[in-house]
Design goal:
This protein is an all-alpha fold. About 85% of the residues lie in helices and about 0% in strands. The protein has 3 helices and no strands. The protein has helices spanning about 5-25, 30-55, 60-85. The chain is flat and about 50 Å long. About 0% of the residues are buried.
Length: about 90
């Protein structure tokens, strides 16, 4: 049986993911969309962390590491891209 905190956390993360996807679709600028993708990666990271905590295993820790590194690399790439446009 899954504890109640898992269902509450997953429900809140689902709401956050839907709101971020709305910002991703409607975002007026590219920077808004890039920030939405970054937040979406963070929401997915939190979802994987909740799943790992609910299972009580450390098998998903490498997945968390890879996702966080991909999110960081994407944020740095977008920042460099936006920085070049400002010059």
């Amino acid at each position: 049986m899954t504890p109640l905190f898992v269902w509450v956390a997953l429900a809140l993360l689902s709401v956050a993911a839907v709101l971020v996807l709305v910002r991703l679709v409607r975002g007026p600028t590219t920077l808004d969309r890039a920030a939405a993708v970054d937040v979406f990666v963070a929401v997915v990271l939190c979802g994987v962390a909740v799943a790992a905590a609910a299972q009580g295993s450390i098998v998903l820790v490498p997945v968390l590491l890879v996702l966080s590194l991909l999110g960081f690399a994407g944020s740095v790439a977008v920042a460099r891209f936006v920085g070049r446009d400002d010059r």
